[in-house]
Amino acid sequence: MVLLAWIFCFCLLLAPATAQSWATIPFSTQSLPIALRSPYLNSWLSQGKAPSATPFASNTFWPVFWTTSPPAQIVAWYVAIRVDGVMYNVFGGQNLPHVANQTAAIITPTQTSFILQAGPVNVNSTFLSPIEPTDLVRQSMPFTYLYVDVTSADGQPHSVQLYSDISAEWLSGDRTMICNWTANINSDYISLQTQLQSPIPFAEIGEQALDTTAYLSMSKQASTTWQIGGNNRGVFNNTGVLLGTQENNFRGISDAFPTFGIAVDLGNITQTSAPSVWLLGLLRDPVVQYTNGDGNKEMRSSYFWSQQANPLAAVSFLLNDSSRALDAGNAMDAKVLADARKISSPYADMVTMSARQVMSAIDITVKKDSSGKWNTSDVKAFFKNMGSVGGPGVNSVDVLYSAFPAYLYFNPAIAGYLLSPLLEFQNSKQYALPYAAHDLGLAYPNATGNSNPHNEGIEQSANMLIMTLAHAQFTGDGALISNYYTLLRDWADYLVNNTLSPGAQTTSDGLTITNQTNLAIKGIIGIAAMAKISTFAGDSTSATHYQTVSSNYENQWQALSFPSNTSHLLSGYGSQSSSGLMYNLYSDKLLQLNVVPNSVYDAQTTFYSQNSASFYGFSRCKHRISSLISGNGSPYDWMMLAASTSSNTATRDALVLQIHNFVTAGVTSNSFPLIYDPTSAKAGGGPGR
């Protein structure tokens, strides 16, 4: 089984519009990713609902920051072009007499491009959110690029000026909060920055951080101008040149909406020789407060600070890196798509829409040592659930479990950075529960620990054992196992004592049903994972013990989990009329444990193929969705895990295609809705994870 079968299982994004006057390549989608580089630099352009509404062009609506509870918040980013004295709107919802005509939208794993015609010229505006997972400096920098190319449509030279601005809406969900600003100008660059007048560390309103500084920057040229104020766009419209001034009346975000604009005059051209490049960044420092194993709070900073002296040094570095970054983005796109297409074209489409989201959900951090130097040997990563389903806490274990295959694919070391703080906290005197914690803290970015009892002991303990073994297998690095072996063994012993008869324990779906088949097998696989962990640790006696227990339990589990005709797995022991989506079998395949025999996979695959049309009516989904949408429902992260366990590619591809059909159904305006009704494609539960 190829690993790619499980990549991005948690984040298959978006539902597309179908009635449109331009081509969306490679497929139509309900909401387009724009800037996705951190949990807070995360914006999308809605395409509206189909078929009742025409999809939004890039210049008819503003990009938004999706929240778990609607409405989404506008985070304005604006692009315009002035051709022969006439200004055309290219990106953003500003009303203008002249609007460029969109002819295509193109999406790749790292980029979203819009092709438009503005009078006699064609414009290509490309938003690049780099994915450079093996370069922790670049990957941890919360900046995204905008590249704009212009070509004459009639072969004649034209006078062309370009303009882009942002508003202060990126700073807070409360648009009455006061912001201030400054312009940083030198011979190399223009960088306009804004922040709240009274920032609040480690706090959110409307899920937007309140300690953010936003930067819009561009390399300095003789023809580059800037302006901060409320009428920048009007000035550009009239003259194509900005005034190089800033208003001095700091005010509320929505009070006459101060904007931060940079323009460049390209002169009379038929074609740009290189793109004009803007850089948008949202910086916070520190990004996470973390309670370590000694009970002390650490102020964790983004990894890139170990190489960059200050924010403007980071801006300068990235502007000078823009050409290489675009080449690297193209190379990453080619690699990811080539790997994904080994599964199927529909699968590659979903990977395209999910890659940026999974990498933007984390902060990769370091801290300073006692001498004040950055300790780059102490790397920890923190994960925010970007959706409304699953645990809301920092490094929420069940949500991380869904995302984990993506990190194993991009860079398995990142998987270890995410596990490290979870293991360190639970190995301390601050944590005394016999099972694994649900998360590291109730609200991002406060990883201050969570030692509250919960009813997901089997779920979370098995998740931690499975992920720890996966990290060791994919990296060959046994440091986490060596450092936390006793803790891991304690969780395994908890599973030994509770897994075969899980009682009314709760799953990550929120289901509390007696003796759930799917939950029990996850615990059994967790015990088998511990056998491999013990082998890594050189403890052969324990390895034999846990392997024997998992084998014995699996035999008993089969006897309890099949109906009398052995046609499929039941959702609960002895519940003869039930059936279930057995996504927890996936980790047996991922780790190559061979706990479950092929006969079980074959039976379940046959059942999936015979019931695919009504697949989501399984009882596992009915219990979870009833409060969200009418009828049946399906979460597609678990659907992808189940598809990966199919014993033939035809069934696997059919299940993936069902998810793709939802992604391309265009019946919701939400980005990333995790749960949907397969009969109507109606989404439930808001944005997904």
TrEMBL record:
Q: Where is the Glutaminase A N-terminal domain?
A: 110-339
- What is one GO biological process annotated to this record? carbohydrate metabolic process
- What InterPro entries has UniProt attached to this entry? 6-hairpin_glycosidase_sf, Glutaminase_GtaA, GtaA_central, GtaA_N
> Can you tell which superkingdom this protein's organism belongs to?
Eukaryota
| Signal peptide region | 1-19
Q: Where do the Glutaminase A central domain residues begin and end?
A: 345-683
- UniProt KW keywords: Signal
- Which Pfam family is one of those matched by this entry? DUF5127
- Protein's recorded name: DUF1793-domain-containing protein
Instruction: Name the lineage.
Output: Eukaryota, Fungi, Dikarya, Basidiomycota, Agaricomycotina
